[in-house]
Design a protein that fits this description.
The mean pLDDT is about 95. The protein is globular and about 50 Å long. Strand 3 (about 45) and strand 4 form a beta hairpin. The protein has helices at about 25-30, 60-75, 80-90, 105-110, 135-150, and strands at about 10, 20, 45, 55-60, 90-95, 100-105, 120-125, 125-130. About 35% of the residues lie in helices and about 25% in strands.
Length: about 170
């Protein structure tokens, strides 16, 4: 069973903020929710706190548990721990996939990312992101394309695995 979010797709958002989650993403959510069994709704956490981000980042239960463990390992009372607790715990939305395979995105979250009638989903390994499609294309995709244009024609992306500072 797939355990990584891969691929991208566009989906309609209805007036109530309901949007279908790509089927392959739902399978990952099921596989990464230790309490999920057939007939139950897979759980996830939508993190929205960083005001600089123009997307919602959706974590499977397994992925958010890993983040929580790292936060808990920081010294209690430290600024880093407090800030991360606020961003990942206080400014997040625990939710579930509805019986029709959709997420219900509250108005507050839709407004934060300027989401209209369509949402763009893109896999990011152990998370997936939800973007306004126009903002994604104008900013994120454009930045990636510009970055690639500055690389030599024979540049191999896999070389970054051995030297991530080369980005």
């Amino acid at each position: 069973m797939a355990r990584r979010f891969r691929g991208s797709s566009r989906h309609k958002v209805d007036a109530k903020g309901r949007v279908s989650i790509p089927a392959q993403f739902r399978r990952v959510l099921e596989a990464c929710d230790p309490e999920w069994t057939d007939g139950l709704r897979p759980q996830l956490v939508i993190v929205y706190g960083d005001h600089r981000r123009k997307f919602l980042e959706c974590y499977s239960i397994k992925a958010i548990d890993e983040v929580d463990e790292k936060i808990e390992a920081l010294p209690r009372g430290s600024i880093a721990r407090r800030r991360l607790e606020h961003l990942f715990n206080g400014q997040s939305l625990p939710t579930e996939v509805d019986p029709d395979g959709r997420l219900v995105l509250p108005q507050k979250l839709r407004e934060k990312i300027g989401l209209g009638e369509e949402a763009f989903f893109i896999g990011s390994g152990d998370t997936f992101k939800i973007w306004n499609p126009d903002i994604y294309e104008a900013e994120e995709l454009a930045d990636t394309e510009a970055w690639l244009e500055n690389k030599p024609d024979d540049f191999d992306l896999l070389s970054l695995l051995d030297n991530p500072e080369a980005v």
